[in-house]
Amino acid sequence: MRTATITRDTSETKIAVTVDLDGTGLYDIDTGVGFFDHMLEQLSRHSLIDLHVRTKGDLHIDQHHTVEDTGIAIGEAVAKALGDKRGIVRYGDALSPMDETLTRVALDISGRPWLVWKTEFSQKRLGEMDTEMFQHWFHSFAQAAGITLHVETLHGENNHHIAESAFKGLARALRKAIEIDPRKSDAIPSTKGTL
């Protein structure tokens, strides 16, 4: 069973995350930030990773700790559920169209975290969510999961579509990368023998 639960309890946030990498895209998410919840629901549904998230953060200050720490907790849960990464495809990519928007996402579950982010927003907020926090979430997730992650919006005008296409692109790329390769299900996908 490729499942994991992570709890994170600090003076800024209290978070519980459970993932099932072999799920069906079921989700139960409450971070206190509606638009953020909507994006995490997209991540779950389109990756087929079952995702349960409960975040209580210091939203009376701002959204920074809530979004950052939730990204860390989800990333840690994915990394823990992957274990030694034996048998996974490892690489994934997706072109994610949403009306006028097209985002390209590519990733490598390499153990070498990195984020290349080429996505911009023309609004400061979407709903109650600060748009500058999207890049920060992707960075926090990639670092904690140990993923090399490239996100590039090739075209986009509507800010909601830009954000959603990035999360859906991540979901679809992640779905490919975490799949068990039936031709090499007993092997670590690296010539080094470890990831």
From TrEMBL:
Entry annotated with the keyword Zinc: no
Entry-linked Gene3D superfamilies: Imidazole glycerol phosphate dehydratase, domain 1
Listed PROSITE patterns: IGP_DEHYDRATASE_1 (PS00954), IGP_DEHYDRATASE_2 (PS00955)
Gene field: hisB
Species of the source: Sphingomonas longa
Domain of life from the UniProt record: Bacteria
Catalytic activity: D-erythro-1-(imidazol-4-yl)glycerol 3-phosphate = 3-(imidazol-4-yl)-2-oxopropyl phosphate + H2O
Pfam families the record matches: IGPD
Chief location category: cytoplasm
Designated name of the protein: Imidazoleglycerol-phosphate dehydratase
